[in-house]
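Appendix B, record 7
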Amino acid sequence: MTFRGRHPDELISASLTGDLTDAERAELDAHVARCGTCRETLAAFGVERRILGGLPVVDAPRDLFARVRTGIESRRFAGPWWRRSGPALALVVSGVTVAAAVVAIVVVGKFPLGPVGQQSGSPEPTLSFAPSGSAAETITPSPNQTTPPGLLSLEPGELGYFSLNGGSFETLRLSFVSDATGASIDLGTASGPPVAASLSPDGAWLAYITQKGETGANEVRALSLADGDVVHLGCSLAAPFTDRLAWSPDSLFLAFTVVAVDLGSSAGCQPPSSAVGSVDVWSWEAGQGAPEQLTGTGDAYVASFWPTVSGTPGFPLYISHVANEPWSEFVSLYGVYYDQEPARGVFLPLMSPDGNRAIFWSGAMASSGGAWQFSSGGMPQLSGDFRSAGPASPWIGTPLFTDLTPVGGEAFASGNFTWGPDSDLIAFWDGAWTGAPQSADGIYPSQQDVYVGRVSGRLLSSASLVDRILAPDSARWVDLAFASDGSAVAITVGYPSAGIGDPPSANLEILSLEGAATRTIEEGGGGDPPAWYGPAVYGR
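Structure tokens (predicted):
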């Protein structure tokens, strides 16, 4: 038995009642020796049991059964504890658990105190991976209140965004801000603006990518919203298709792409582990040490995790290999082998949140100056429904744009796409079109435009264009995030630097998809000095 990628909850429970074999005891001891989370959990349960041992035993209330049934029927208890959101789960593991358990056992004291864990008769979870990292109490501040240092949470639907400030030739400081409360976490100095961000499903970690000054490289970091710690994960040459930050559905793993770059010993980056310019996928177990190189082929990009695989532990990760005909395959971070044929002609498949479909790239690729992009026929595609065909079926795509007719193989060289939270909304932006214009005015499709559509309705076309928000033609769309309810989209709009030494500048525009007014977070293009706001994420 191995516990790579999760915590041995069942062994911890069995250890409290002496039900471990010698082999299980040795395995648990070895895991606890390197895992701070499990040491804290084991210690907390030990204290809890000592406290409970001295409590009086009382009868359970006569109406206990009725109250429990009422709670279930009203769905107050919907969802087992191991599938609840991060803040609630953190409380279970924290000292609050001890106090709650004391009250519970005093009330139902005549029930047997068995092993800590699942009670007899309760449903068996299909997957039960415990989140990594130390638990911490979530603090919800009132508006305009400064939170204690290093503590910030995003409630479901709440917006959080990056803010980069500093004058000309000054040191820039980066922070992460809660739009609802104004509370922020100071992330220290930064040599360049943030360009991508991804919140873990449990809301505990925020992965982000910042430009590394004028070096042409990016830096990947992760921020713990529980204690404010920032973890450096690596540096990468900036190139198309390298800004994907993929979290596993259980929040245990982050996967990202690194293009090996050597910036010298003083740059604060790891020395390249492979030839400069080679591209590989790296992974990081949240809160558990240094990242690890997952591939060594020099041609691999991270795509996305498959949200659900029935009856299989863990979550498969799709990675893509560049070539004249790119292809994608499953790899595992959970010690499981997935017998899956490679998907030929499929690049960077992005799974929908419900796992039923994917958006992906098709076309022929080539390398230019070490950066891979599409040289012919590059088009974003929508897959069929995997519920009927399954992931092993051929990937027969439908072009995401319904009104583009590439001539002679000219199409998109690169671009970005994403899903909405409902697995129906889709968006595409920063598309580098190499073909002939497809509109009478000669500007469609444009790399300076954002297109939003729906799988259930109209896919993308010239009619899907999002208003330009009065942005100048020189502006660029840096990143995009849908609101948790699909009612709005937050777009980071970058502006060109005013001159040498001037700080980067960007607005964060919140566009309603339901007809409400557009809202701007600060004024990135007109301040003195101008500031950079974005990218944004929404609480899950």
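Remarks on this record: Residues 487 and 515 are 9 Å apart (CA to CA). The chain has a mean pLDDT of 77.
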